[in-house]
Amino acid sequence: MTTRIPATSFPSTLGVLLAGGLARRMGGGDKPMRTIGGRTILERVIARLSSQCSGLILNANGDPARFAAFGLTIVADDVPGFPGPLAGILAALDWSAANQPEIEWVLSAAGDCPFLPRDLVARLHEAREREGAQLAVAASGDQTHPVIGLWRVSLRNELRHALVVEDIRRIDRWTARYPLATVTWPTEPLDPFFNANTVEDIAEAERLAALDAAS
Predict the structure, then answer these.
(1) 42: CATH
(2) Among 18, 134, 153, 166, which residue carries the largest CB count within 10 Å?
(3) Is 5 among the domain residues?
(4) What is the count of structural domains for the chain?
(5) How far is residue 78's CA from residue 91's CA, in Å, rounded to a whole number?
(6) Could you give the CA distance from residue 174 to residue 207 in angstroms, rounded to a whole number?
(7) Does the residue 181 lie in any domain?
(8) In 10 A of CB 177, how many CB atoms?
């Protein structure tokens, strides 16, 4: 099932939480299942995005049963070889086209970012519309976060060609082909796009969770 909320002032947007990586820097396993402040990172991501999206799905590979407790539809990559987050984005675009054809936009977010902005979807859509862009991505400080962005479902065939035929793996190589809006968030009191890549990051996330709760 997908979680659902009432319509908003911006176009209906399906959210995909990307959890298809191999977590090599954390010794393997599912990074979103690590716990911060008594809650899994994935719980925190769902809490941030469920009120911003018309539905949420989870991109993950392997046995989907390990995520059953979250009640989300699990969508696996269909491009072999773990080619990275573009494969997860493509899987979400294909799923949306097949199951929710009325939706034109998909928001992708890393499943290991526990402090995502509460105005993420609204600001990305606002910038996209203002700039006449086909895509929109997030940034904080001087760093762009191309895995966190808005993707037009109608571009899915072009994305598949780029992945399968051209072997393009870097998101920014693909987005460079289109008018792109970039929206920047402040990094104080914390970077909303902080992601937990290592065991050390988990310890830092515990500290940031206290700041986030106070903000």
Answers:
(1) 3.90.550.10
(2) 18
(3) no
(4) 1
(5) 7
(6) 35
(7) yes
(8) 13
Within-domain flag for 6: no
Question: 23's torsion region: left (phi>0), alpha (psi -120 to 50) or beta?
Answer: left
Tokens of 201: 């990051």
Tokens representing 206 are 């515990």
2 lies in a domain? no
8 Å CB contact between 111 and 46: no
CA angle 21, 142, 166 (to 5 degrees): 45
How far apart CA 197 and CA 16 sit, in angstroms, is: 19
- Tell me the residue range of the domain where 157 lies: 13-214
**pLDDT tens for the chain, residues 1 to 215:** 444 433 448 999 999 999 975 444 334 457 788 888 889 999 999 999 999 999 999 999 999 999 999 999 999 999 988 889 999 999 999 999 999 999 999 999 999 999 999 999 999 999 999 999 999 999 999 999 999 999 999 999 999 999 999 999 999 999 999 999 999 999 998 999 998 777 778 778 877 877 776 55
- What is the DSSP annotation of 102-154? T--EEEEEETT-TT--TTHHHHHHHHHHHHT-SEEEEEETTEEEEEEEEEEGG
